[in-house]
Design brief:
Length: 146
């Protein structure tokens, strides 16, 4: 509990007596303009939020048996997103395709391996979809600049 003397000093100065740490013995208090303190704190938080870089999730869809040139075109878009600092979700359409069911239990993992080989040093694999999910996907994050 702050002393009466400290309370009187704050009142005489037209300021507030703010308790900084109540757990100490004796408690730590500070004489300040509490309204100005809250205003400055809010202003600093807004400034930090303004300077913060929001990472977006971009999505690119591919088919399991995509041709090489089509994959290169899709990868240009992926590189553009990664260079912009965004994460990229690369999803594979496997719904109802008889080709996938007949030929390709290994087609999707092979495609993902090929994609990660093309991505190389530009990005890192952040996560993969679960094996039991209908739509297979990977998330590639951009490499942080040092």
């Amino acid at each position: 509990m702050p002393t009466a003397q400290a309370l009187a000093m704050a009142g005489d100065a037209g300021l507030d007596l703010v308790e900084i740490n109540a757990n100490n013995t004796p408690p730590i208090v500070k004489i300040m303009d509490y309204g100005k303190f809250k205003y400055d704190q809010k202003k600093r938080a807004n400034e930090a939020r303004k300077n913060q870089k929001m990472v977006e999730m971009k999505e690119v869809w591919v088919k399991p048996f995509i041709e090489e040139n089509d994959l290169n075109i899709k990868m240009k878009k992926v590189f553009e997103f990664l260079d912009g600092g965004n994460k990229v979700k690369i999803a594979v359409m496997t719904r109802g395709s008889k080709k996938v069911l007949a030929r390709g239990k290994d087609a999707v993992p092979e495609l993902f391996a090929r994609i990660m080989e093309l991505v190389g040093e530009r990005g890192t694999l952040e996560s993969k979809s679960k094996p039991d999910e209908r739509t297979k996907s990977i998330i590639v994050a951009p490499v942080k600049a040092k």
